[in-house]
Each structure stands twice: as structure tokens, then as C-alpha cells.
Amino acid sequence: MTAKTLQELVIEVDAVLRNYVIANEDRPLLERLRADLEAALASRPSAEPASSLRNNLQAAIRGLELDHPRLTSLLSKTLDTLSDLGL
After folding, report:
1. Alpha-carbon Rg of the chain, whole angstroms?
2. Residues 33/77, Cβ–Cβ less than 8 Å
3. Predicted TM-score of the model (pTM)
4. For the chain, which terminus, N or C, has the lower number of CB atoms within 10 Å?
């Protein structure tokens, strides 16, 4: 997988955030994850360490899998892509 694939997944996550009903308590976590993914994609020095980003993605997947299966599928793909990229 490539950084382009990761960018495509970030765009898909953005679309889900815009078009799906997400509980108010889940939205800040998802917005933070999106920002962290964009930072990792841009390789900004201030980006959250990759292990922390992976842990946050895993926690989001566990917390959202019952109510938002499509979103958790995208987050799982994103996690796999980060791993493939060595992040």
C-alpha cells in the first residue's frame, strides 16, 4: 500500500464523518483521528507517534464496531495501511 492509498482512506473517512449520523460523544475522537492521519500522511514533525495513532485507531474500532460497521471497516483498512507503510 502507498501513501496515496492512505490519502484515499482519509478522504473516505471524511466522507463518512460528513454523511453519517455519528453520536456526539464519538465525533471528537474521529475528528482527532482524522487530524492525526493527515499529520502522519504529511509526515509533519509534530505528528503523533505512530504507535499512539495505531492504539487510538484500535480503540476507535472497538468502540464503534457495533454502531458503525462501515466506518470501522475503513478504520481497519487505515490501520492496515499504516502498518504496511511502516508507521
Report:
1. 12
2. no
3. 0.69
4. N
